[in-house]
Amino acid sequence: MQVCAACGSSNVFYARPYEGRALCSPCFVGDLEEKVRRTIARHAMLEPLDHVAVGVSGGKDSLTLLTILAKLEGRFPRAKLTAVTIDEGIHGYRDEALEIARRHCERLKIQQVNVGFNDLFGITTDEIAATKRQLTPCSYCGVLRRKALNRAAVKIGATKIATAHNLDDEAQTALLNFLHGDISRLARNSPVLKDPRGKFITRIKPLAEIPEREIVLYAYARGFEFQSTPCPHGNHALRNDIRAILNRLDEKHPGMKFTAYRSGEKLRRLLDNVLPYAELNACERCGDPTPQMICEGCRLLEALVPLAARA
């Protein structure tokens, strides 16, 4: 009979196949929080005076991230957290998530800022999906969500942006960039993305080394209410195929997601010393920093929304 490797309890909650350790529910919760704390420390993600804008969608990952960061913030009274929720305009799906995020922020007594695609860009993800262009709605949504989060972080005076990307996300991204031959993105994808030019707010991913399955279990163990339905526009994304491949590999060979993630990190460190950072201009449309004359977000929007509607 398995017993908890930490306290000896027979009430085993989860057995990690890649570690060979079983843990009861309280020990699992404490262990995962400690893993996140170690990730933050190892990558020097946070400083005592930071004001962190935390992307909170209402899903299990972002609620877990906000909860753990709120717990850590208690040790640093001069630090500050602000939850930023992006409303992409996905009917039904996002409405539920916004309410869940609001209630969770209220319980943690953390200020929340809501930012909508329609207010910022004059178009919603539902409307983008209805145009049936060659790119998937995810291609637009991802770029515009990053742009909206950065805008909100600048507005509130944040020094860091924290996103809830987990190990599965990071392993998938490493493989996607490799398959696309996108060396630049492979070099820039990191648990801490700090712009040496000082034009972008530093982005951190405290959950980058936590498997998605364990985040789900943490959310259940803590009794979180979270949105579990997938985005209705996401089922055609290539990332879903990569996710399925990685899940099958990890079932047969536990730890493969860590292997993919660490391989990406090794390549990033090698490339970081080779690829120079491009000079940045102010986007001619919105003023955001970009290596082009017009930023990626505005280039995508120009094909969708008349310029006058965004003025």
Describe the protein:
- By secondary structure, the protein is an alpha/beta fold.
- It has a six-stranded mixed beta sheet, with helices on both faces. Strands 1-2 form a two-stranded antiparallel sheet. The chain has a two-stranded antiparallel ribbon with strand order 9-10.
- The protein has helices at residues 25-42, 60-73, 93-108, 117-121, 125-130, 137-156, 167-180, 183-188, 212-221, 238-252, 256-272, 296-302, 307-310; strands spanning 12-16, 21-24, 51-55, 80-87, 112-116, 160-162, 192-193, 202-204, 281-282, 289-290.
- The chain is built from 13 helices and ten strands.
- The protein has one domain (39-277): HUPs (Rossmann fold, 3-Layer(aba) Sandwich).
- The longest helix is centred in the middle third of the chain and has 20 residues, at 137-156.
- Residues 307-311 have low confidence and may be disordered.
What percentage of amino acids are in beta strands? 5-15%
**Could you give the distance between the termini?**
66 Å
- Numbering strands along the chain, what is their spatial order in the largest sheet? 5-4-3-6-8-7
Q: Secondary-structure element sequence?
A: EEHEHEHEHHHEHHEEHHHEEHH
- Mean of residue pLDDT values: 90
CATH architectural designation: 3-Layer(aba) Sandwich
Number of domains: 1
Oligomerization state of this entry? single chain
Short description:
The chain has 13 helices and ten strands.
Q: SSE layout and pairings?
A:
Elements lengths: L11 E5 L4 E4 H18 L8 E5 L4 H14 L6 E8 L5 H16 L3 E5 H5 L3 H6 L6 H20 L3 E3 L4 H14 L2 H6 L3 E2 L8 E3 L7 H10 L16 H15 L3 H17 L8 E2 L6 E2 L5 H7 L4 H4 L1
